[in-house]
Amino acid sequence: MQGYEQRLVQHVAGTQFEQLDSAAVEACKIFILDSVGVGISGSRLPHAADLLHTAIGWGSTGPDKSAQVWGTDVRLPVAHAAMVNAYQIHCQEFDCVHESAVVHPMAVILSALLAEAEARGCDGRTLILALALAVDVATVLGMSADKPMRFFRPGTAGCIGAAAGLARLRGYSAEQIQHAMAIAYSQTGGTMQAHTEGVAVLPMQVAFNARNAIVAADMAGFGLVGPEQFLSGDYGYFSIMESDGKASEAFALLGQEWQIARVSHKPFPTGRAAHGTLDALMQLRTQHGFAAQDIESVSIEAPPLVRRLVDRPAMPGMSVNYARLCIGYVSATLLITGDVGVQDFDDAALHDPARLALAARIGMQPSASEDPNALAPQAVTVRLHNGTEYRREMLAILGHPDSPLSRVRQQDKFTRCLASARYPMGPAQADEITMQIDQLDHLSSITQLTELLTPEQQPVVATT
């Protein structure tokens, strides 16, 4: 039997656009739209501006070797543009996720591939195929694991997947594709410590890996040789970074099921592990009509991964990144305001005493599930001051392929994301971008899309 490395190479090198089914092509469009939207919205955060200005200092290049930083008028060398865009995609925890893999596949992959495709003037079909293949690689690596994460999987698996997609987009040979992934493994990094502490470098780990994927593809292009057994060797990915107890069944999906069609939307800008609770609370409020002031307590039963990722106490002075991953804070926000949006992590909201008081009455406990990578099922019980209890068990969480976000809600999220950006974009521009993505497989050049990702009015930022 072929080794895991060879099976990835064969899949990436040998698949043609015509082998994509209509669901996979449509899913590529859907999640490109979603990721571009959250990436433009991410420009609103101060660190996005800081990163942009820092990257400008690293140097510029001609238009044929540069790419757009979304939501700005700045063009940067491809690796630098990909880095900034990747940070903007992930910095608000609003980007899509593949739940079985526990991988945010688009942050590293789309930022790298779209920058590369723009600089090369690739057509839409070339981008779609490279994207679908890259997502397959990243998510198969994620689904192979049977133990809890130690390294930050969206970055590590995303980097190897992005390198594979870049190599295919560039038309590399099978040997060069393997070297690109191997060199990506030699550079990839990012651990769960930043997630545990809720510090601001967490989304930057995605940005580092978008840049590193492009560097890896460049180096494979000039002939640098990477380790042959970058997955299965004694010091390979499955020895150092991840476990491989489910690798046989995960790799069997290559060529059988396109994983881009198994990606979940995020209806809220929080860790996906919190979404089962938020979905349940929205449904219970709608059904029973209680108000936040009626609630005595909320009890959540969840698998180990959910508890590990978001079961942390709300407290005064918590950081933005900590709050996005705090089940008490995000649940209290939804119960008080009716939703959770990007503005709910601004300073005024984080210091709201009513949210902190309600968050203290929201707790999480183990469910029957012992799966270390499961996000569901989750069960939520709301107890009112009058003694009434309401319970909801969530098997498929809103945004999952089995409980999809409607097209209306997808478009509403996209429009709101653009309006929330540092330099806001209006509904007309949102419609133009949507139209180009809807016909992506017919675009002769990706620049027909990327030229729309600049706001019509903003201060000019010097690039030299």
What gross morphology would you assign? globular
Proportion in β-strands: 5-15%
Low-confidence stretches: none
Assigned CATH superfamily of the largest domain:
2-methylcitrate dehydratase PrpD
**Assembly context of the chains:** single chain
Count of folded domains: 2
Query: Architecture of the largest domain, CATH level 2?
Result: Orthogonal Bundle
Q: Can you give the helix content as a percent range? A: 40-55%
Total beta strands: 6
Q: Compute the separation of the termini in Å.
A: 53 Å
Characterize the main sheet: 4 strands, mixed
> For the largest beta sheet, what order do the strands appear in spatially?
4-3-5-6
The CATH topology assignment of the largest domain is 2-methylcitrate dehydratase PrpD
Q: What is the mean pLDDT?
A: 95
Radius of gyration: 21 Å
Q: Tell me the name of the CATH class of the largest domain.
A: Mainly Alpha
Determine the number of helices (DSSP H or I, runs of at least 4 residues).
21
